[in-house]
UniProtKB/TrEMBL annotation:
It catalyses: a 6-O-methyl-2'-deoxyguanosine in DNA + L-cysteinyl-[protein] = S-methyl-L-cysteinyl-[protein] + a 2'-deoxyguanosine in DNA; a 4-O-methyl-thymidine in DNA + L-cysteinyl-[protein] = a thymidine in DNA + S-methyl-L-cysteinyl-[protein]. Residues 80-160 form the Methylated-DNA-[protein]-cysteine S-methyltransferase DNA binding domain. The active site is at C131. It is found in: Cytoplasm. This is Methylated-DNA--protein-cysteine methyltransferase. Transmembrane segments: none annotated.
Length: 166
């Protein structure tokens, strides 16, 4: 008789938050938030756990300008390098910006500017892991998965526009 192996799925929990910039999909597992993404419409049926509820509440506070730091467990999946970049992004304070070169230097790998850019673009946890705070070395807006209009909005919301447009 052939033995069938069983695989326990990593249960995902999801909910949505309507913001002035569109709909955010918030996904978590039992460990932490694994994704925050702008979506056009709900893709999954809401099935929130406590982590998703906390993330939704904190993101709502962020958009109301009553929260400048997030206190959530994070569970993004990626390579070791991507995770190192995402961890470095967490050090960019609310209302501040950094360049890809700044992040590469912070990782003690100043020649890894392009690799930092690629890792930044793969960040699955928008806003909470603040990839929107990364700008070009010439202080210009650079790519953002949610669109440059959303990136500019988020930087304006945080009061970082002076860094870019003064």
């Amino acid at each position: 008789m052939k033995r069938v192996s069983t695989c326990v799925e990593n249960v995902q929990f999801v909910d949505y938050l309507s913001t002035s910039q569109g709909l955010l999909e918030i996904i978590a597992n039992k460990e932490g938030v694994s994704a925050v993404t702008f979506v056009q419409s709900p893709r999954l049926s809401p099935n929130a756990n406590e982590i998703v509820c906390q993330a939704k509440a904190q993101l709502s506070q962020y958009f109301k300008r009553t929260r400048t730091e997030f206190s959530l467990p994070l569970a993004a999946e990626g390579t070791q390098f991507q995770k190192a970049v995402w961890q470095a992004l967490l050090s960019i304070k609310y209302g501040e910006t950094a360049s890809y070169a700044d992040i590469a230097t912070a990782l003690n790998n100043p020649k890894a500017v392009r690799a930092v850019g690629m890792a930044n673009s793969k960040n699955p946890i928008a806003i909470i892991v603040p990839c929107h705070r990364v700008i070009g070395s010439n202080k210009t807006l650079t790519g953002y998965a949610g669109g440059l209009d959303k990136k500019q909005y988020l930087l304006n919301l945080e009061g970082a526009q002076g860094v870019l447009w003064e």
